[in-house]
Amino acid sequence: MKLKNLDYLSHLLYDNFTLLQIVKSITINKIFIVLNICNMSNNDLLDLKNEIFKYGSNSMVIKAKYIKVLFSNYFSFFKSACMCIFINDMNQFLNIIKILKNSSFYFSFNKCFSNITNSETLLLQYNIYESLILLHYIIFKLINNIILIILFYITLFNQLLKNSSIITMYDNEKKN
Asked: Do residues 26 and 32 lie in contact, with contact meaning Cβ atoms separated by under 8 Å?
């Protein structure tokens, strides 16, 4: 009887530790991919994990019961297990979706989930909009810098007005 309680407590502790690891990985990394692995063989899964490790990203295979605990009923269609890939930056993300070879997956960028998508669609959109994204980024940075410079000059002008008003008030008090 006591051995069963100890076994139950050790499984409960392991489950809680696993959940904490998953939540920590989700909060630390900007991007994570949720990939359904029910149709993948063990060798394919091992190869995928090795390729992901080469890019410096982490991955975890998550059981269905953890998916229900973590994501409520949003991912209840994953019947067996899924693989979460935790990614730090956009270059790693692009390299990893090239590895996925047209498999369907969900991804989250800055805690916002996407619809189900595949790697070919994302790579096509990236190739089409890459120059526009770069152009938008450059324009945003220029506008941001211009606004900062204008704000800096406004604060300097404000300080100059305050100082001149204090001097004129001081001069007016001296004359009286």
From this structure: yes
5 pLDDT band (50/70/90 cuts)?
Answer: low
Taking the C-alpha atoms of residue 144 and residue 148, their distance in angstroms, rounded to an integer, is 6
Amino acid at 39: N
Question: Top-level CATH class of 2-115?
Answer: alpha beta
The distance in angstroms from the start CA to the end CA of the chain is 98
Nearest Cα residue to 47 out of 105, 116, 118, 100: 100
- The dihedral region occupied by 56, where left means phi > 0, alpha psi between -120 and 50, and beta the remainder, is left
- Which two tokens mark 27? 């909060």
Domain boundaries, given as residue ranges, for the chain = 2-115, 118-176
The pTM of this model reads 0.60
- For the segment 126-150, the average pLDDT, to the nearest whole number, is 81
CB 67 within 8 A of CB 83: no
